Amino acid sequence: MTQILMPKATAVWLIDNTGLTFKQISEFCDLHILEVEGIADGDVAAGIRGADPIANGQINREEIEKAEKDSDYEMKPNKFDSDELQPTKKKKGPRYTPLSRRQDRPDAIAWLVRYHPEVSDAQISKLIGTTKPTIKSIRDRSHWKINTINPTDPVSLGLCSQIDLDAIVKKAAEKKAKEDAANAEEGGETLTPVEPAPLPSEKPKVEHTLESLFKPSEN
Question: What is the distance between the alpha carbons of residues 113 and 118, in angstroms, rounded to a whole number?
Fold first, then answer.
C-alpha cells in the first residue's frame, strides 16, 4: 500500500468533509480505527489542520465518491515515487521560511513543545527555521505573544513535511530511550549493598569471690 503523507491531517479532512466510515478512513490513512475515532472526538490530533488528499494528489475524487456509496469499498490512493517519501536533505544553515508563514512559527513551536517535549531546541530550530531564544521564550512562557499562541501542527502550517517531522520525532525518541536506559544503569551501580548490622558487644563477665562479697565498702 502506498504510504499516505500527513495521515492524521488527511484523516481530519476526510472526517470533516466526507461521509466515509471510520474503518475506511483508518484503512486509507493507515491509522488504527480507535485513533480515527479519537480524531473525530477531538481527543487525538488536537491543533492539526485538515489536509485535502485530493488537492495534494493522493487520491481522486471519484475514489472517495465510490467509497461513500459503498461502506465496504476500500479506497485506492494514487501511487507516489518512493524518492518522494524520503526525508529531505538539510542544507547547512537555518531553514528558509517564507515571509507569509513566519508569523505561524510560534504556533508550530508551541505544538512541538506540548506534544513532543523530547525534541530538542536544536532540532526544532532546524525543522521550522526558527531561533533557540524564540523556542526558549515559548517553553518558559515569556514570549511577547504567548497569550495568543495557538499550538498548531507545523505540517499543516506548511513549515515542514510530515516525513521530516516524523524523522525528527523518531530520532529524539530513540535518543531519550538510550539516555533513560543509561541513567537507569548508572543509578543501579551507585546503590551500595546493605551491610549486616554489627553484633552487639558482649557484656564483660563479672566474677564474684567470697573475698569481694565480704569486703567492706571504701565509702
Answer: 8
- Look up the domain containing 135 and give its range: 99-188
Instruction: Of 43, 47, 53, give the one whose Cα is nearest residue 6.
Output: 53
Tell me the DSSP string of 52-104: -TTTTTSS-HHHHHHHHH-TTPPP-PPP--GGGGSPPPPPSSPPP--GGGGGG
Residue 154 CA to residue 97 CA, distance in Å, equals 12
Tell me the three cell numbers of residue 76. 485506492
- Is residue 105 located within the same domain as residue 55? no
Query: Is the whole-model pTM more than 0.85?
Result: no
pLDDT digits (tens, 9 = 90+) for 125-162: 888 888 888 999 999 999 888 899 999 888 888 888 88
Q: Tell me the per-residue pLDDT of 31-74, one tens digit each, with 9 for 90 and over.
A: 898 988 888 887 776 777 788 888 778 888 898 999 989 989 99
Determine whether 201 is exposed, middle or buried from the number of CB atoms within 10 Å of its CB (0-12, 13-18, 19+): exposed
Residues 119 and 179 in one domain: yes
Residues 106 and 74 grouped into a single domain? no
Give the torsion sign (CA, 24, 29, 31, 36). negative
pLDDT at 198: 54
The verdict on residue 210 lying in a domain is no
Distance, in Å, from the CA atom of 20 to the CA atom of 159, rounded to the nearest integer, reads 29
In a domain? residue 202:
no
